[in-house]
Amino acid sequence: AIAPLRSGEQSVTTQHVAKITFEKYGRVIKVAYKGVRKTIGKNMVRSSSKVAHVVHMDWADVTDLWQVRLQKKEFAANKGIKLTLLPFIMKAVCHALIKHPYINSSLDEDGEQIILKKYYNLGFAVDTGRTLLVPNVKKADGLSIFGIAKEMQKLAELARDGDIKLDALKGGTFTITN
Question: Which residue has the higher pLDDT, 86 or 2?
Fold first, then answer.
């Protein structure tokens, strides 16, 4: 018999289970490492050695921004858009990336070039229940806050439904997490 799941533990569907076994410290479930999960893993490993990882935190009073969001929330809802704070932040990030182009760049080591991207495709995390995906709002700099929110909502729904296309997960220039 398999022990019941602990609080907070996610179930694993049998279609992904390769083998249930025991190791020195207890029960393990070995899951096939393929498909999207494998691609994500390879990209994370590559990222850890190729990408400059930066975490910066500041405290900000967003009381006024919160009030603007509340004022615009009903207007957005009437257009079928769920308005959160993230589209406001994404719009501000676009302005910052335009002002500081080296943050929106990549390094071509072989060609010995820094590639300053003049497009702004902002990634955001979506928990699908199966995995974490990072779709990109393409050309976010050219969208309004409502446009960003609508695109995020569409991409998140596609990701959760398992219908997202690979192109929606490619081409990101900057990723935001909340």
Answer: 86
Task: Kindly report, residue by residue over 56-110, the tens digit of the pLDDT.
Answer: 788 889 999 999 999 999 999 999 999 999 999 999 999 999 999 888 888 777 7
Q: Are 114 and 67 in contact (CB under 8 A)?
A: no
Closest CA to 125 of 40, 10, 16: 40
- Hey, how many other C-beta atoms are within 10 angstroms of the C-beta on 177? 9
Cβ(72)–Cβ(88) below 8 Å: no
Structure tokens at 43: 């990209």
Q: What letter represents residue 168's amino acid?
A: A
Helix residue spans in 112-163 (DSSP H): 145-161
Residues 158 and 1: their CA atoms lie apart, in Å, by 36
pTM: 0.71
Question: Do residues 144 and 93 lie in contact, with contact meaning Cβ atoms separated by under 8 Å?
Answer: no
Neighbours of 106 (CB within 10 A): 13
